[in-house]
Amino acid sequence: MENSATSTVIREGIVQFCSYDGCITTLQCVCHVFESSNNLISFGTLHGKEFNFSSEGDLTKVFKDV
Question: What is the mean pLDDT of each run of 10 residues along the chain (66 residues)?
């Protein structure tokens, strides 16, 4: 999306995905934007839900300490 661009949210829902190590992650309150062809995850939103991040090269890891 371009800077300062706005889009209409069609609906909110829950998304589950399985990571490379078999762990199933659930994201709640995910917004579906019809005209978007990209999958975007807000690091700011995840950080607010106590997730942490580490990056090395072109790999970014998102995790939550238990």
Answer: 78 86 84 81 81 88 79
